Amino acid sequence: MSHKNPTSRRDFLKLAAASGVALHSGAFANQLLASETLAPGYVPQDGSNKSLVVIFLRGGADHMNVIVPYGDPDYAAHRPTLAMNLESGLIKLDKTFGLHPAMTSLQSLWASGKLAPIVCAGSPHTTRSHFDAQDWMEFGAPGNRGVRDGWLNRYLATTQKKGDSASEFRALGMQELLPRSLRGTYPVLAVPSSLTKKKSSRNLDAFERFYGEGGDMLEGGEMMSGEREDDAAGVVKSGRITIETLRRLQAIIAASEKKNKNATVSGSSYPDSRFGQRLKKIALVLKANEGLEVAGIDYNGWDDHAQEGGAEGNMADRLRDLSTGISAFCQDLGPTLDTTTILVMTEFGRTVKENGNSGTDHGHGGAMFVIGGGVKGGEVHGDWRGLKPENLYQGRDLAVSTDFRDVFNAVLENSLGFEPPSGFFPDYKPNRLKKLF
Predict the structure, then answer these.
(1) What is the pLDDT at residue 203?
(2) Which candidate, 121, 186, 192, places its Cα nearest to that of 150?
(3) CB within 10 Å: which end of the chain, N or C, has fewer?
(4) Mean of pLDDT over the chain
(5) Which pLDDT score, from 0 to 100, does residue 243 have?
């Protein structure tokens, strides 16, 4: 009986790329293998199961087009084609600010005190580089190129305790590549978007054959060419652990979906977008009570240099998807929202004045949203100084009056019950935001 090699290296790499199963996810298994226990974890002392979902709007979202300062006397002159007012459909928050018309689905969260916008929030660093600003925000260390672990991973690593066990699903990046905020020494799983599809199951079958016991790849086949035997065995073991974990997560999501099919929100209530479906999966894992504590999602495409749009247009379409997804997620969670916090952030804001292409350029101060359990919503937080030239950063941007690390610190303390030790945010001592929670 001949034994046929089931998968060549070339076929395996093609399969990985097509399926969205990130090859680097083996790092997750390697970190587990290096841990003293399979999944060390932190259990809140009050016994509650608190969780945090972080949504990063990549590209520098124009938060003056999200939380619109319609009541500022200088606003309309800065934005002749983008400006909106209450007649445009703005959702009135107070006498100065209104929420973009495409975000009507968040109106009930605002009315119930579960939505807290923070204006003029961001990084104090002067950079307008997407890459630097994103890195430094996710590492929680503006300007410090020596820090390479994310602020959420530091939280996970700092709060793990020897002898405690926690689910390997304590933290998830609900996408193919982990957000930088979740990268570091603590093992965090990146979850491919196609995980719950039939095609994904077939691909996992192929990966399992590839990493299977006694397969040709372990016997000096093409994939392990040039590897020492013990190295190859480690790669295979790491791959198997990752695949087994993805299979368990696949089963958990499927079981939770079946159990909750008649729950608060049906699947169709989520937008049929990548973002909406990722949020749906997070909700299913949370409702499965598998110990999910921290989840991260990136939402790309917010670099609106041209044709940004006001009440309608490119940005409005994204805002509609964002807010509909968040609203469905909150409804879906039901009472679990009381112990869940959603943090929405972006690397920097945009110029106050629109450019000649009906867009906005890289700016400085932006905004953040905190939604969910314990937050003091129903009011706009932050220090708004107005749009007169003397109040603008470098004469062109919103100033940063709330450092993003102050918000991170408040979320860690009030949402997860963790008081960051000295040095958790390198070279910075956060100010306490007493009015946010």
Answers:
(1) 53
(2) 186
(3) N
(4) 84
(5) 77
Give domain status of residue 420, yes or no.
no
Split at pLDDT 50, 70, 90, the class of 161 is confident
Give residue 423's region: left, alpha or beta (phi > 0; psi -120 to 50).
Answer: left
Q: pLDDT tens-digit profile of 295-351? A: 999 999 999 999 999 999 999 999 999 999 999 999 999 999 999 999 999 999 999
Decide if 366 is inside a domain. yes
**Tally of domains in the chain:** 1
CB atoms under 10 Å from CB of 268, counted, come to 8
For residue 251, being part of any structural domain is answered with yes
The answer to whether the CB of 58 falls within 8 A of the CB of 363 is no
Quote the pLDDT of residue 395: 96
**Structural domain span for residue 194:** 9-415
Residue 117 to residue 241: CA distance in whole angstroms: 41
Q: For residue 426, is it within any domain? A: no
> What is the average pLDDT across 143-168?
87
Burial track 147-180 (b if 16+ CB lie within 10 A, e otherwise): bebbbbbbbbbebbeeeeebbbbbbbbbbbebbb
Contact yes or no for 414/435 (Cβ under 8 A): no
Give the DSSP letter of residue 96: S
